[in-house]
Every structure is written in structure tokens, then in C-alpha cells.
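Chapter review: from sequence to fold.
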Amino acid sequence: MSNQKKPGPTDNRGTSSRKGEVSGKGTASGRGAASSGGKDPRKGAVPNKSGSSNKGAVPNKSGSSNKNSAQTKMPAPSKAIPSNKESVRTRETAKRTVSREHLGHLQTVRRKRAISSALFMVIVVLLLAVVTASAIFYVKDYVAAKPKFAFVTQGSVEHSVSAEVLIIRREAVVSSNTSGSLVTLSTEGSRVSKTQRLAMVIPEGMEDTVIELSGIQSQIVEIERDLVSRGKGMGAVAVYNETAAEIIPLIDMIRVDSFYGDLSNLTSYSASLQVLMDKRDSRLQSIDFDDERLSTLRTNKIRLEQELAAESAIISAIEPGIVSFKLDGLEKELTPETLMTIASLECDKYIKNAQRIIFGDLDIVKDQPVLRICQNELQYFACVIPGMGVSDFPKDSVHTIRVPSEGIVINDCLVIRSSEAIDGVFVVFESQNQIERLLDRRTAEVEIVRSVTEGLRVPRTALIKPDYELGYAKILINSSGYARSLSVKILDYDREYAIISPIQGFNDPNTSTIVITNPNTLSEDEKVE
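The C-alpha cell string follows.
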């Protein structure tokens, strides 16, 4: 038949094959395949049971391949297909290999990051340390104590002790022969002459006249102050300035006591201020302000005083001196003669029992004291100074007494009596100064200056390693721009200052010497800037 294909050639073993077919026993190769010992030389061929292989063919049970499957083109695998167990093991091995490599990479990255962070922190800490050190050195240099300088000056060093004194004056007491209300005609603490009218004792029934007189006096004071503020009245400004100079120390002490919460001296301050104001107003009455209102008020004041005087008892001065309308009942008991015989224990008893500030009373009882006149010559201070002896306050020695509550200094206080006491020395001082300022005081807290040494004075902080027993020290001076050490003698000292003198044979220090008051800021021979 013309449409049938001719059989192909046969091999030497009598086995025939067709293109694309595989026999059951023999080995046949397709087109382009070479036969060699029953094996397929192509990579990836799968052998059958008879040892023959074909391209992409799957053998059947009889060892022959299906024609349809033989004709289907299959891609040739590059490697042999492993079994299931082998593929699982391969994947697990690959995973373990990948995991170890990944973990190693992560550890390396972490290590690098840790090292980088540590280096960064070290750099930051070093920078902070440098900045802090620079700031410390700057602040230390900025706030470091700088050398302070002062000239050696002429001055004094004082040694004082505190005590409470009993104040005694030679006083004359004036009584009233009638009862009534007191109207003063002179100012508290003013100096008066003999027979001068000092006060009136107004009987009952004239209260309206007294009130009217008091109102006129207030108006006069207000107008005088207004005229002074406008620059009128020759001499009035001088009166105000003198009074202000006496008031300012009291104001300063009130501020200090208020700062420390001490109100115990306010009554004393008030009394002193009132006395000073009354003295000022009394002095202003003698000044002609050339004001019609003031002239009219002064005329009415004189008229009312005359009306009251016609119906009242007039009290006049029995001797010259300083008048005071404040009494405490000890005026006749405590006299200068008493101080020369009184014992120290009695003096302490008076100090403890006496009222420190003496007050007055405007209600007068018949035959009772109304005022006192103090001689303006002398006043006396008696006290027991603990821890001291007669050698510290010998008789006829002169001392200075300060009264801090009044802001006054009483100079030239003469010791007229000095005797041993149980716990110190009993001393009586005599003075002619500041009698008016202490007129309303029976006792006072004072500071008594025991000794004074004068000479070249420097702050005690300027002394270098002072030996107070031997009386030697060194000071650091500014000599041509350099710190030089200089030995000096210590003559005396207190809490703040020291009195020094040059070593014998030397002229330095003197009043032109510049001393360094804080020598710990410099060393010797160091340049002074």
C-alpha cells in the first residue's frame, strides 16, 4: 500500500525500532540519539527495567512505551529528581545554613552598632567633661576673691563693757497747793530761769477754756510748719535742721529694732521724740514769721492764758535748771550724796525695781509734786560691772558711755567712786553732758568704754599669722605692683581692727602704705593686678 511507511533498519541484535518508539527488550534511540552499552548518554534520562531509556517516555508494565507519550515533548530536567526525604533534609540543611549565616550577620551588625554607640557616648562624655571643666575654671576665676586694698590710717581701738546704770540727778521738786488739771507753760526738757512761770493748775469748771487753748496751740504749730516749708521765717530752717539732727538717730534705732522685732524701746523712743518736737515748737514761737493768721492766734493764746491764770494757781520755777513734768517719786530719795554711801547691792535693787521711763500725770492732787527742776550742771551713773576690778576703772579715770537706745554718746565721764563688789566692781560716774536727753530716764542700758589705744590702724583680716601674746604679725603690702611681706608689732586690737607699729629701726608701715586686707588671695612676690 502506498500510504504505509517502510520499516526502518534493524540493529545487529535483531531488534527493530521506530522513530519515537521503544521496544520491550531492546534499546532503541530516537532521532539524533546514540546507543552505547544500553545506557542513555543524555543527562536526566530515566532508565527502565530492561536497561533502555527514551527521551521523556514513561515505560509500561511490558517494558514498552506508549506511542502518545513518546510523541509528547517533555523538557529535559537538569538534575535527577530527589526523593521526598532527601528534599526535606536538603531544605532543613539549607534553612539551618541560612539561619546560622543570618544570625552571624545580625550579631556582627549589633556588635558594630554597640561599638558605634559606645564610641559616641565616650565622645559626648569627653565633650561634656571639657565644657564642664571650662565652666568650672571660668566660674572659679570669676568668683575667686580678688585682692582688696586699704591705706594704713590713724585710728583707735576701744574696749567696752555693757551694764545697766542707775541715773541720778540733783533735783528740786515743786508741789501744788490746789487740785485740778495741769496746763504746761514751758516745754519738757527746756532750760528755765528762776521765777519763770512753768505751769498752771486749772480748777474744775474751766475745761472748755482749756480745750480752746489746746486747739489754738495746735493751729499755731501747723501754721508755723507750713510757713517754714515755704521758706518763711528767718532762723526757722536752722531750728528745724537742729531738731532733725537730733531726731535722725532715734529714727535709725527704731528701724533697727523693728527689723529685729524688738519693740521694748518704742515707749522710750516716743517720749524722746515728743520732747524734741516740743522743744522745736517752743523755739519757733520766738521767731517772727510776719503772718497775720499766726499773729492773731498768738494774741488769742495770750488772752486765754491770762483768763486761765486769773482763775488758776500758777507754778513758777524756784531755781534755774531744766524742767520736767515727769516724776517717779525717787527724786528726794536718790541724790548725789546717796551715791557716795550706797552699797552695790542697794544699787542693784534700785535698778531692778525702778521704772526705766518716767511718765507724767496731768491730774494734780493738792500738796503733791507737780514738776521737778534738775540742775543743769551734773548727772550721775551708778552700776556694777561684772567680771571687772578696781584696776580696770580706777578713781579719777575718764571714760566714754554710749546709750544705744537714745543714740547718744556721753564723753568725759569721770569715775568718782570705784569699789569691789561681789561679782565685779561698783563704779559711779559723773558727767556734764546730755542731761536733757536722759531727763525722763531712771535706768538705761549702756556701753562703757574701758580703754582706748590710738595709732596706725589696719583691719584684723590684714594680719598674717598674728601672735597676740608676743605682739607680732606680718602684713602683705603693695610695693611697686608686687606683694611684699612686712613684719609689724601689735599694740592693741578688738573684733575688727588692730593698732600696729613698725619694727624698731624701720619706717614702714606708715599712713602712705597700701595694705592688702585679704592676704590669702595673694602670695608673697606675686604681681598685684
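Two observations follow directly from the output. Residues 84-143 form the longest helix (60 residues). The two ends are 137 Å apart (CA to CA).
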